[in-house]
Structure to design on (183 residues):
C-alpha cells in the first residue's frame, strides 16, 4: 500500500469514529460555532427599553458624571457637550425646525433611558463596554443636566431615569405605553 492510500484509509477510519458525534452536532443545527454560554448571553443581553426595563441596579449623580465626562468623553464631544470631532450632545440652539436642524439628546431623543443604553454599549468609542453601571448612570445624569432636562442635584437610577420626560417625546409616534410611568 502506498503512503497516499494509507493516509486516505486512516482519514476514513477517523471520520467513521467521529460519525456519531458529528450526527449529534448535525441534529443540533448546521454544525457551526458553539453553544452560547450563560456568560456570553449575559454580556450581549444589555438592552434597555424605553420604559426602563433592563436598567441595572446602581446610580450616579450629575456631579460624578461631570468628572467622568472630563476624563473619558471631552476629547471627542467637547466642553459642555458642545461637540468636537464627534457629535454635539447638548446645547442645540436652533431646534429641529430651522434650516439646519440640530438633533441632540435634548432636542431630538424621545426617551432618557436610551441614553443609558447607548452610552453603556457604545461609549467611549475607543473602549465600548468599559463603563460600570454607576459610571453610566452618572454620565447619563450629566448629559441630561447639560440639556437642562434634570437639575444639578438629581441622581439617576432604575427608578428615576424612566420618569424623566424628554422635551421631544411628542415628536414621535409613541408605540410604547409608558406615559403612565412618566407622570
Ligand atoms: C474617540 C472619540 C469618542 C469618545 C472618547 C467618546 N465618543 Fe461618544 N461618540 C463618538 C462618535 C464618533 C459618535 C457618533 C457615532 C456613533 O453614534 O456611533 C459618538 C456618539 C455618541 C452619542 C450619541 C449621540 C447622538 O446624538 O447620536 C452619545 C450619547 C455619546 N457618544 C456619548 C459619549 C460619552 C458619554 C462618552 C464618554 C464616556 C463618549 N461618548 C466618548 C466618539 C467618541
Amino acid at each position: 500500500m502506498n503512503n497516499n492510500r494509507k493516509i486516505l484509509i486512516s482519514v476514513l477510519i477517523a471520520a467513521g469514529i467521529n460519525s456519531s458525534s458529528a450526527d449529534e452536532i448535525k441534529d443540533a443545527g448546521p454544525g457551526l460555532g458553539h453553544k452560547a454560554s450563560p456568560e456570553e448571553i449575559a454580556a450581549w443581553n444589555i438592552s434597555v427599553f424605553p420604559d426602563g426595563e433592563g436598567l441595572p441596579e446602581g446610580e450616579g449623580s450629575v456631579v460624578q458624571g461631570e468628572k467622568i465626562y472630563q476624563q473619558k468623553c471631552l476629547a471627542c464631544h467637547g466642553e459642555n457637550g458642545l461637540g468636537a470631532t464627534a457629535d454635539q450632545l447638548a446645547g442645540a440652539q436652533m431646534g429641529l425646525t430651522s434650516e439646519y436642524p440640530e438633533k441632540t439628546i435634548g432636542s431630538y431623543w424621545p426617551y432618557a433611558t436610551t441614553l443609558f443604553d447607548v452610552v453603556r454599549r457604545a461609549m467611549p468609542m475607543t473602549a465600548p463596554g468599559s463603563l460600570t453601571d454607576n459610571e453610566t448612570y452618572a454620565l447619563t445624569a450629566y448629559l441630561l443636566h447639560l440639556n437642562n432636562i434634570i437639575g444639578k442635584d438629581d441622581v439617576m437610577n432604575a427608578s428615576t431615569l424612566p420618569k424623566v420626560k424628554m422635551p421631544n417625546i411628542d415628536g414621535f409616534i409613541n408605540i410604547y405605553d409608558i406615559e403612565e410611568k412618566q407622570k
User: Anything to note?
Assistant: The pocket of heme C is lined by residues 72-73, 75-77, 86-87, 89, 104-105, 115, 118-119, 122-126, 139 (CB under 6 Å). The mean pLDDT is 86. The two ends are 84 Å apart (CA to CA).
